[in-house]
Structures are given as C-alpha cells and as structure tokens.
C-alpha cells in the first residue's frame, strides 16, 4: 500500500546531473523521507531529440552514489504515449483542446500586428489565432484552451502565487508540430498516474504551475502540494543548466557534492558518513518545514 505522501524527482536525460539538479533531487528525497513517504524517480525523456544516449542511466548511477534510492523502478515518459493520447482525446471531447496551424513565425507576426512585438527571452503569448478554426490551413500541433482570469495557489516555500495564464501564456501546446508530446501534458498525466501528492522541484519551474493546475482540473486530477527550491547560480549570476554548460557533479566523492547541495538548501554541514549525514539532514528538513 502506498504511503500518504508520494513525491518524485523527474530529471530530463539531456545530460548528467549538475549541482543545480542535485539540489532539487536532494530536496525532493529529503521531503519524502521527512514525511515517511514514498520517493519515486521519473525519467522525463519525452523530448527525445534532446535526450543524450546513456544520460538516464548516468543520472540513476549518480543518485545511487549519493544514497538517493527510489522506492520503485523509474517511470520512463517515452513509453507513455498511449496515456497522453487518451488525455488529449478527453480534452478534445470537452472542447478544451484544439488543433493549431501556427508556426512560431506566424505567432510573432500576429503579435506584432496587434502591437505586441515579441521581446527576446519573454514568453511568446499565443494570441488565439486557431481557437475558432484552422482557416483552411493544415494542423501542426494541439493546444489547450486555457481558462481566463487569475489562478492562485500557495507554494510551500515561496508563499502565495498567482498567474493569469491567458494573458501571460495563452493557449499552450499539448502535442508539438513534430508529433512529440509537450512537457505540460506529460508531467500532469504522469503525476496523476503515479499518485504524486507533493512536487518538490527547482524554482525555475514555478512558472509552469498555473498551467499544470489548469490541466489537472480539466482532466479531473488532484493538485499536488508544490515546493520550489532555490536556484543554484553560476559565476555570471544565471541559473546553472545543461544549456549553459553546467558541469556534471562528480559523485565519486558523494559527500562533497551532497554537502554543497545541503548548504544550498540552508542545511547545516555534517562531517559524518553519508548515511549519518542524510539522516541528520532529514531531521533538519523536518524542522525547517514545520517552521513554515
């Protein structure tokens, strides 16, 4: 029987774990252990062109080196296409999903014509061009018809949060023009399938939460509790990521990288063996969360 708490760490195998992703992994593991819960690992390899051969296995070895062992075998998104298709059909039947013929260039042109030229690095807000039909053009992708208005939720670390998804994002992609499933749909379907009750992940993913809550509600899924962890920044002040060349953590010396990850989470140093350090950090994490 599953525990009342079910958490997960869901890395994308576009490369091995770096120090930022190890912080998220440790936080999610600590949160599950502090609540006597179940901790799962999901390999988010749905974006297959970006996945690096062998990276998923490397990530699993890094986690094992650090003593972060999942309670069940990992789930692989690349094997879950039928479940995503079922969810898309459900949304389509509800009128919440529709085909879209727009390319990125089409969206930028439509926004410019509306007096909203796209700013570099800003969200490309979909203007709703295909909401009422394809206008004779072939479908490229599938989008989710978002609900208007402000959506509010509470993050366990960041506090009260809100977003107007229609104004700040627009109808977002569920299935891409290349036939691949979009992250938002896959993560919502898989969180529900795995019975995830608590999501602990990096703060860079907080902006996705309102979209995922809208999808959860449309599909009749429960909404997990969310906690977004602090980001690890590089020397240039930008968050560490595989895209900007973040180096893989060397787990041949697990206590060094674990201690750095624990420090990033505000936990005190521990000089003992790995198992003792992890147990001490679980106790510290429990106290930290009870004080929030």
UniProtKB/TrEMBL annotation:
ATP binds at residue 242. InterPro entries: Glu-Q_tRNA(Asp)_Synthase, Glu/Gln-tRNA-synth, Glu/Gln-tRNA-synth_Ib_cat-dom, GluQ/Sye, Rossmann-like_a/b/a_fold. It is an enzyme of class 6 (ligase). The keyword Ligase applies. Its cofactor is Zn(2+). A motif ('HIGH' region) lies at residues 11-21. Keywords: Aminoacyl-tRNA synthetase, ATP-binding, Ligase, Metal-binding, Nucleotide-binding, Protein biosynthesis, Zinc. Pfam families: tRNA-synt_1c. A motif ('KMSKS' region) lies at residues 239-243. One of its GO terms (molecular function) is ATP binding. GO terms for cellular component: cytosol. L-glutamate binds at residues 8-12, 44, 183, 201. Its EC number is 6.1.1.-. Catalyzes the tRNA-independent activation of glutamate in presence of ATP and the subsequent transfer of glutamate onto a tRNA(Asp). Glutamate is transferred on the 2-amino-5-(4,5-dihydroxy-2-cyclopenten-1-yl) moiety of the queuosine in the wobble position of the QUC anticodon. Belongs to the class-I aminoacyl-tRNA synthetase family. GluQ subfamily. HAMAP family: Glu_Q_tRNA_synth. This is Glutamyl-Q tRNA(Asp) synthetase. It comes from Caenimonas aquaedulcis. The gene is gluQRS.
């Amino acid at each position: 029987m599953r525990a009342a708490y079910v958490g997960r760490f869901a890395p994308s195998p576009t490369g091995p774990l770096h120090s930022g992703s190890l912080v998220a992994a440790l936080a999610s593991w600590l949160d599950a252990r502090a609540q006597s819960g179940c901790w799962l690992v999901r390999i988010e390899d749905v974006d297959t062109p970006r996945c690096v051969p062998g990276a998923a296995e490397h990530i699993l070895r890094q986690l094992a080196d650090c003593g972060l062992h999942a309670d069940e075998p990992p789930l692989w998104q690349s094997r879950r296409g039928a479940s995503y298709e079922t969810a898309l059909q459900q949304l389509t039947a509800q009128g919440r999903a529709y085909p879209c013929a727009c390319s990125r260039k089409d969206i930028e042109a439509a926004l410019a014509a509306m007096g909203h030229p796209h700013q570099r690095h800003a969200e490309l807000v979909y203007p709703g061009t295909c909401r009422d039909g394809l206008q004779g053009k072939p479908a490229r992708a599938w989008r989710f018809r978002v609900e208007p208005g402000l959506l509010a939720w509470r993050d366990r670390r960041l506090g009260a949060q809100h977003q107007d998804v229609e104004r700040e994002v627009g109808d977002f992609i569920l299935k891409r023009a290349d036939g691949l499933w979009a992250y938002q749909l896959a993560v919502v379907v898989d969180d529900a399938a795995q019975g995830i009750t608590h999501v602990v992940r990096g703060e860079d993913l907080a902006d996705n939460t309102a979209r995922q809550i809208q999808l959860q509600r449309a599909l009749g899924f429960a909404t997990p509790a969310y906690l977004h962890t602090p980001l690890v920044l590089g020397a240039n002040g930008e968050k560490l990521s595989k895209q900007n060349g973040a180096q893989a953590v060397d787990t041949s010396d697990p206590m060094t990288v674990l201690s750095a990850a624990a420090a990033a989470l505000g936990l005190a140093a521990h000089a003992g063996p790995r198992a003792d350090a992890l147990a001490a950090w679980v106790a510290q994490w429990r106290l930290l969360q009870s004080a929030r």
